[in-house]
Amino acid sequence: MDDVAAAAAERADVVVVGARCAGAATATTLARAGRTVIALDSARFPSDTLSTHLLWPSGVAELRRLGALAAVTDLGAPRLTRAYAGGAGHHIATGFPAVDGIDYAMCVRRIGLDDALVRTAAAAGAEIRERCRVTDIVWDGERCVGVRYTDPSGAAAEIRARLVVGADGRRSTVARLVGAAHPFAAERSGRDCLFAYWRDDATGWRRVAAQWRSGADLGTAFPCDDGLLLCLVQPPADPEQRPGAAEKRYAAAIERIPELAARLAGCERVGRVRSATGLSSYFRRSSGPGWALPGDAGHFKDPVTAQGIRDALHYGRLLGEAVAPVLDDTARLDRALSAWERRRVRECRDIYHWTNRLARGEAMRPLEIELYRAATRDPALSELVTGIFSRTRRPGELNAPARSARLVASALWRGRHDPVPVVADVARQVRDNAAEWFTTHTTLSSGPLQGLSHHAASLPFRSPSASPGEDHA
Hints:
Layout: H1 3-8, E1 10-17, H2 21-32, E2 37-40, E3 54-55, H3 57-66, H4 69-73, E4 82-87, E5 90-94, E6 106-107, H5 110-124, E7 127-129, E8 133-140, E9 143-150, E10 156-166, H6 173-177, E11 185-188, E12 193-199, E13 208-214, E14 217-223, E15 228-233, H7 246-255, H8 258-264, E16 268-276, E17 280-283, E18 287-288, E19 291-292, E20 299-300, H9 308-323, H10 330-358, H11 366-377, H12 379-389, H13 401-414, H14 420-441
Parallel strand pairs: 1-2, 1-10, 2-7, 4-13, 10-19
Antiparallel strand pairs: 3-6, 4-5, 8-9, 9-10, 11-17, 12-15, 12-16, 13-14, 14-15, 17-20, 18-19
Helix pairs in contact: 2-5, 2-9, 3-9, 9-10, 11-12, 11-13
GO molecular function, one term: FAD binding
Domain FAD-binding: 12-344
Pfam families: FAD_binding_3
């Protein structure tokens, strides 16, 4: 380490790279604990980012824990009190399970949401520096001890810190610089994501978060702030990714989902179609001596289950809570970082598998159709499915032996004249369960997270790494 440079560098307890969801949550928590926090972001807020943005009740509860809910509510997004799902001729409508007294979802555009979070972090005592771009990590041997960056004028500067938090999204500069850019587990999505905003004319749907399946297509309609509606479609992935095709693909997908098209009747589209293609869900190594990667920088799930913002807020907050008391002791800090990372992997791996199944870009299969059919007449089952999305229930609860047996028996009875598709689906479920169990107990166990230095720039992974982008829900 250069002693002269170290003497000239600015100092803080923590430097956070990226001030959006994960970064703001981490910075807010640490600043409230009395720590000196500097957050650097390349944007100038208010600033939009490529992202869907549904918050299930668990995500709304995180906003309240951070003290940001009032500011976000003031943006005017309606409380979404009902969840609706349609597929294969079946329609399911439920309320939301309460999380810490929050029993509604919200869909808030990122330009307002992120600005509210940045203001919350600043009010807590974090220093937010906009239009600053990190260029390098400062090392002391194997330990990360700060960052180098350029300020808005283009001048080079340096901050030394006990902890560097890379909350800079899927293209994370910090992940690349610490050698963690390649996932140790990844799954290619079978869907592309295309979305646009509409001026919402359907007042009867303004408190409903709706999703429809038709063939291999999936579409959603989420009312949001400023009287708008976020309409997202996820058709099967286009391997060619033809330039300029987003508009046509978006319109065609809506036409293939008649109930979504009916929902949009009378609504006027506002702005262009935005797209995210070539998506992969992944886990990256997310902690090391003096550094951590919350949010999409360390872990990403396909937007099909709308988990990204909640997890960014939740694990950003938990990171701040875990390290605030131990920042002055490097050994205890490193243990806290490792424990935080293991916790996130442990708590997210079930929803990671669940998301990957829904992201396959396939038509509904016999057992899935049977699940929809059963949920239409069983409120407890429909509430269980809604609870999985809101993280109050676990995906494994759907696979309880008695329930699985009933679904299989019912599907076989309905398909008794041609049972082959049902039998094939059952066999596939068994294979999927076995593969997920193996991944959970090998790749996603704590083992691969240990004993790696920042020089390990290439980690084993199952499929190609994630495509560019940041902070998807």
